[in-house]
Amino acid sequence: MTYWLIVNKAAGDGRQGKSYWRSYLRAAGIEELNVHGLSETDWEQHVAPGDRVLVAGGDGSVNRVASVCVEREATLGVLPSGTANDFARNLGLPDDPLELCRMMRSEQTVEVDVSWLNGNVFLNVAHIGLGTLPSRQATQDQKQRLGRFSYLLTLAQRLGMQRGIHGRIECDDQVVEGPWLTIAIASGAYFGGGHELNQARIDDGMLDVVAIRHESWWRVGMAFITTRLLGRAPRSGDTMAHFQSSQCHIQLRHPHTVTADGENLGRMANVSAITRRGVLRVMGSRLVSGRPQPPEPIHYTPSDAPPMARPGPGAHPF
């Protein structure tokens, strides 16, 4: 078994780079390391089944290395060093870097889901619409100075500038169509810098598809305040639709930008996503679920009742 350390030196504020993690890994007893930069590609073909590939970076870096681990049957280790680190939140990793590196040396592993959108791997979330703006527009300087709050800053700066997207969402026998502000396809319990999906897990073999209706900004703003400040989701049906399925298809009227784990995949009109259960082995001892939340009563008025399937309860829209 070989230990690999793959480092994205541009991740986060740049302080948790190669020398930072190498010192803690040595203190934990991992002396022999094959160290490479994330921008390099020659290491990928040398990873063997059973190797441990540790990645120091954010969600985009983890995404890249996870693809190699799935292909080469290696075990992934995450050393959170990015802005959001949502995938790491699912794993309940220790905050102390030495304790974390000792875990990388242990035999503790968990198996998690991997999802694909039009053939592209994603571990956390794919976005269409307003949800793509933070990763596209937040500058590196903002990320370094403000961390995950840079995403909220970018979102606030762009409120009122989106006209919405028209699309048909199909998840098994559940179908809904209309104008949307944003559509998120989530694999785990966290995305967007720590936002939770209630009762979701990264090992449940399900995608959570959350679509926010293109309504008045006042209603969307109230949903945001309810979610972020009061710690509870808005009533289902008022502003959103939420489905769970192992696969989904979205047909858009016009092509729109799609992002996955913060990476821009280009403009698409047809989006298909699937998830495979437990195909990635990761260093860790436990998995974290989004906090449970009891269902709330559904209140519709004739003007905003959904045309087809009833949305499920308990998803955070942002």
Automatic annotation (TrEMBL):
SMART domains: DAGKc
Residue span of region Disordered: 287-318
Coiled coil: none
Residue stretches of biased makeup (Pro residues): 304-318
Gene3D superfamilies: 2.60.200.40, Probable inorganic polyphosphate/atp-NAD kinase, domain 1
UniProt keyword Cytoplasm, yes or no: no
Keywords for the protein's UniProt record, in alphabetical order: Kinase, Transferase
Entry protein name: Diacylglycerol kinase family lipid kinase
Annotated source species: Billgrantia kenyensis
